[in-house]
Amino acid sequence: MKSGKYTLGYKTVLKSLRSSKGKLIIIANNCPPLRKLEIEYYAMLCKVGVHHYNGNNVDLGTACGKYFRVCCLNIIDPESPPNPTEDSANFADQPKLMSAALVKAAKQ
């Protein structure tokens, strides 16, 4: 989650969906059903993809590099991964781009 723009949390995801921002919504598997339905409804209206993460909210928070639970997140602007033709030492030193990987995994 080092690059790109994203929002974490239920309220901020709904705010960004209401303003038609976002490319992909990721929801943890233990998100409450009412929240999940509301997020899916707004995502359907905005024509935004929804990915159901196989882990719980603790796992999703850890995958985002945070020390707190994350019920849902909205990827607003995923940035592309670094160019592999660059110097290999510089490429190895750069952190992994979580948002681009999550968008790629959701498209498959």
Automatic annotation (TrEMBL):
<comment type="similarity">
    <text>Belongs to the eukaryotic ribosomal protein eL30 family.</text>
</comment>
<dbReference type="InterPro" id="IPR029064">
    <property type="entry name" value="Ribosomal_eL30-like_sf"/>
</dbReference>
<feature type="domain" description="Ribosomal protein eL8/eL30/eS12/Gadd45">
    <location>
        <begin position="1"/>
        <end position="79"/>
    </location>
</feature>
<dbReference type="GO" id="GO:0005840">
    <property type="term" value="C:ribosome"/>
</dbReference>
<keyword id="KW-0687">Ribonucleoprotein</keyword>
<keyword id="KW-0689">Ribosomal protein</keyword>
<dbReference type="GO" id="GO:0003723">
    <property type="term" value="F:RNA binding"/>
</dbReference>
<protein>
    <recommendedName>
        <fullName>Ribosomal protein eL8/eL30/eS12/Gadd45 domain-containing protein</fullName>
    </recommendedName>
</protein>
<dbReference type="InterPro" id="IPR022991">
    <property type="entry name" value="Ribosomal_eL30_CS"/>
</dbReference>
<dbReference type="Pfam" id="PF01248">
    <property type="entry name" value="Ribosomal_L7Ae"/>
</dbReference>
<dbReference type="GO" id="GO:1990904">
    <property type="term" value="C:ribonucleoprotein complex"/>
</dbReference>
<dbReference type="InterPro" id="IPR004038">
    <property type="entry name" value="Ribosomal_eL8/eL30/eS12/Gad45"/>
</dbReference>
<dbReference type="InterPro" id="IPR039109">
    <property type="entry name" value="Ribosomal_eL30-like"/>
</dbReference>
